[in-house]
Amino acid sequence: MKHIKLYEGFKSDHDKLVKTYTDKIKDCILYLSDNYYTNIEFINFSDFVITITIRKNDDYDNLYQCIIDSNEKLKHELNSEFNDVTILSQESPSWILSSNRLLINQLEKYIRTNIKDIDDNEYYTIKLDLSLT
Amino acid sequence: MKYIKLYEGFYSEMEDVRNKYVNKVKDCCLYLTDNYYADIFYKNSEFHVEMEIDNTFDLNELKDNIVKSADRLTNDLHMSDMKIHLGMDSTKIYVCPISMINDKFVHSISTLFSAHSNKPELKYKLTMNFFIR
């Protein structure tokens, strides 16, 4: 039986392109996704958000380096880098730290001093904003 | 001399996809673009056809051209959720779905124009917003 060709239009072309680049981002942030629960979401225009969830047993000593390595790979492969970092705690679901790319360096200090001694059910969410060129 | 291939990233590929479909929308809206100055663009996940109208326009003809364009957009590009906005500067005067572009619409607009007949310089912005699949 011959197959029926489905209508392919703007939405399908758009979604295919978003998927292609989501996969490319996935490859660049393997350092993070191998160690932490991560999610990539396309927001609008050329903006993506990478969400990392940090739980009690996660190795958050290594987190900063994984973010830096991912950022380097994104720079090299996709000519882009993280614009903003936002950290949300479960207890106070408002952002704690939001920074431009120059302040990403402060993240290490922040992680070491603030994200520790979390309870079994507690978690932190780190949002990394990425605009693709 | 061999040409240098420029970096093509998400933004440029996405622009290509959007422009391809803006051109398809242009083809469907020939009834409007042939008769009036119409600007066609993609913004905030929607396609927009924007026109400037005044009280010298034949409103019955305008209505027919809008309906014919909407029919082609539906047939060729699976357009959905079309809304027609009529405004002046930043004030929205009239918003309705395409299903309400009928004689009553013409009557409402001509009543509005009559009320301002002493100001022929007044320009109104008519926008058609819609999604395509």
Outline the structure in words.
The complex is a heterodimer of chains A (about 130) and B (about 130). With about 130 residues, chain A is an alpha+beta fold. Chain A is built from four helices and five strands; from the N terminus they run ααββαββαβ. In chain A, strands 1-2-5-3-4 form a five-stranded antiparallel β-sheet, with helices on one face. In chain A, a hairpin with a 2-residue loop joins strand 1 and strand 2 (about 45-55). The mean pLDDT of chain A is about 80. In chain B, strand 3 and strand 4 (about 90-95) form a beta hairpin. Chain B is elongated and about 60 Å long. In chain B, strands 1-2-5-3-4 form a five-stranded antiparallel β-sheet. Chain B has four helices and five strands; from the N terminus they run H-H-E-E-H-E-E-H-E. Chain B has helices at about 10-30, 30-35, 60-75, 105-115, and strands spanning about 40-45, 45-55, 80-90, 90-95, 125-130. The interface of A and B includes residues 7, 12 and 133 of A.
Query: What is the CA–CA distance across the termini of chain A?
Result: 44 Å
Name the CATH class of the domain at 39-131 in chain A. Alpha Beta
How many H/I helical runs of chain B? 4
Strand content of chain A: 25-35%
What shape does the CA trace of chain A take?
elongated
Q: Return the average pLDDT of chain A rounded to an integer.
A: 81
Task: Encode the helix/strand succession of chain A as letters.
Answer: HHEEHEEHE
Shape of chain B: elongated
> Sheet with the most strands of chain B?
5 strands, antiparallel
In terms of per-residue confidence, which ranges of chain A show pLDDT below 50 for 5 or more consecutive residues?
none
Task: Give, in order, the helices and strands of chain B.
Answer: HHEEHEEHE
Distance between the termini of chain B: 43 Å
Strands of chain B, total number: 5
Based on helices, strands and strand pairing, what is the structural class of chain A? Answer: alpha+beta
User: From the alpha-carbon coordinates, what is the Rg of chain B to the nearest angstrom?
Assistant: 17 Å
> Which CATH architecture of the domain at 39-131 in chain A?
2-Layer Sandwich
